[in-house]
Give the backbone structure.
Amino acid sequence: MTPELLVQSLLQLGLAVRHRVIEVMRAGGEGLARPIRHVGGDMVYELDRHVEPIIEQTIESWPEEWKPLLLIAEGLNESGRKRFGSEEEPLRYRLIVDPIDGTRGLMYDKRPAWFAAAVVPDAGEATGLEQSAAAVLVELPTTKQGWADAFLAVRGRPTWGQRSRLDGAETVDLSPCPSRVPSLLDGFGHIVSFFPGTKVPAAELMEHIALVTLGRSQPGQAQVFDDQYISTSGQLVELLVGHDRFCGDLRPLLQRIGEHGEQASDPGLVCHPYDMAGWLVARQAGVILTDGLGCPLRLPLDVHHPVHWCGYANAALQAAVQPVIRAWLAERGLKEEEF
């Protein structure tokens, strides 16, 4: 199958999830925030439960050229895997999906979530997300929205997008472009601290980044703005459309600082490979993505691997911020070979 056919199938899957989410959200009820079970590295809520059958039904309907296919997603089971197609034939593709990335914001109707998916030609158990052939990020809107976005990417082509009215009456093209501003000054940038456990070291590191790159602030001055989107896909979108200049999700590394005895931290919830399913969409738009230490991002296709990452809107920001992060982590006993 061509990359164009692959990405259109992913978009079809994301739009099917969007349609179901809109139905459920418009029906309303606080029950959508009810925890169901902990599986695949994260908590599954009532809202998540409504879209799981849609994903399986849609994949079942795909042409045989897709199959055998291995689906990797949170919420399926503890392994996070389900095979579609013949058991005897070798796999053709691995499909990694986060059906609702940002459930916690959407289930309270606070902020949109995102459907994220990437398809990777099978290369055995060593297949990694960095080998993605196509990927999509599809916005899952709150009840007050009349429009929603989707961003698509195939390897080797610039990311493109579309903004559609939810009634289907109109669609406009989007051409995403990350910020070209070379400094964090007067822009949005942050170190992730969604949940208790790593908030203290995250805040200390962000304070240090601002001090080193911008100097001390003057009275009444706000040098860098913080707007944490509790959705990895949402953070990638904020980078690729030019809203945010920097984001660092270092939760697994900050937890290791606690193990070294400097700062207590609990295991907590971290980013997983399915959260980064839209990695190709951001990269093909021009976002610079690395792991938390500045090395190339290499992610296995599973639901348990802890992920740390940094995203920079441009090379100048990476050159300014990345050495500060590496030095700060090294001072606290973290060695690159440990990861």
Notes: The chain has a mean pLDDT of 92.
